[in-house]
Every structure is written in C-alpha cells, then in structure tokens.
Amino acid sequence: MNARYDRGIHRLLASRAPIALMIVVAGCAPGALPKPAAKAEPAAKPAPVQTRKTLGKTTQNVLRLSAALAEGAVLAETSITSDGLEIASEAYRTQVGKAGGIAVQQRMQLYNAEHGEYPKTYEHFMDRIIGVGQPDGLALPMLPYYQEWAYDEDARRLVVVEFPEKRKQRQEETTGAAGI
To answer: Cα separation of 37 and 14, whole Å?
Structure first.
C-alpha cells in the first residue's frame, strides 16, 4: 500500500473518529481518501425575544388578522386550561382578551347605530373604532409579549392571536432547551 494511504489511516485511528468513518476510509483505494467535510457554520441565533410590561399598560397596536396568520400566529385560546400556579396568569390573560373584545364590540355597535354600517376596511376600523392618536381613542389592555390584538375584517371583530414561536424561543432563552 502507499505510504500516504497508511499515514491517513493512522491519523484517523489516532483521532478516534467514529467506526463507520474508519470503515469507509479503510475500503477506499490508495490515494482516494475522502475529503474532510467542511465544517458547518452554526446557524445565526435569532435576536432575543423582547418582553414587555403588561399590568396597567395599554396599547393601540392592532394587526390585520390575515397578516398575523401569515407570520405564524394562531388564534389564542380563550379558556383556562391550566392548573396550579399558572392558573392566575392564564385567568388574567384570557379576561384581558375578552374585555378588549367587548370594548371594541361596543364601539362597533355605536358606530353601526350612527352610520348604519360597520367599518368596511382595516384602515377604517383603526381610524374610527381604535382612533389611533386621537384623544378619545380606545386604549386596549397590553397583552403578553407572545400575543397581539388582531382585527378580523371578514367577521368584523377583534381577536387575540398568539405567536407560538416567540413563546418557545423565550422559554428556551430563560430555561434552556430542556425546558427546566
């Protein structure tokens, strides 16, 4: 056998590479050693999830439901399913979502009574019902970092959407991949 081939085998054995790789290399013809695989660069870490204070805070940020769903959002659960320590936060979160929806529903009914129709577009809804930047604008309760308000143009109602990837990423940032 050729000396270069022998040196390659000895180097491989000294490196304690996996057995499968040694078998592949041992079966190669002299001078035909496989080229080492290029090291894969680690995937870029996503930016850390920005949390936000929710208690006593308000917002006028409302997304279009269609755009939120396209970005990976799902409709948020509106019932309490936890037990134990999580029940208080889940109760608060679901009640805040329901209260915001009721406030918008009331404004939409008043608008309908005055104009004989509901807002036809998202822009019209934001201008007439939410009133962004207006003194009498509707201030919705702030939701947790992984949830947002969204307007369903077809059903003409305000809903809460959840971004599961944000929640999962934040859990991994704070507890590690093991979720401990």
So the answer is: 18
- Which pLDDT tens digit goes with each residue over 49-96? 777 787 888 899 999 999 999 999 999 887 777 777 778 878 888 888
Question: Helix, strand, coil proportions of the chain in percent (round to 5)?
Answer: 45, 10, 45
Phi-psi region for residue 138, left (φ > 0), alpha (ψ -120 to 50) or beta?
A: beta
**What secondary structure letter does DSSP report for 79?**
S
Q: CA angle 134-140-144, nearest 5°?
A: 135
CA distances from 99 to 67, 103, 133, 136, 142 (A): 23, 6, 21, 18, 11
Give the global pTM.
Answer: 0.67
Percentage of the chain with pLDDT > 70? 73
- Cα separation, 174 vs 180, whole angstroms: 9
Where b means 16+ CB within 10 Å and e means fewer, 38-57 reads eeeeeeeeeeebeeeebeee
Nearest to residue 107, comparing CAs of 160, 59, 156? 156
Residue partners of 1: CB distance under 8 A and separation at least 6? 30
Q: Which of 163, 164, 160, 124 minimizes the C-alpha distance to 142?
A: 160
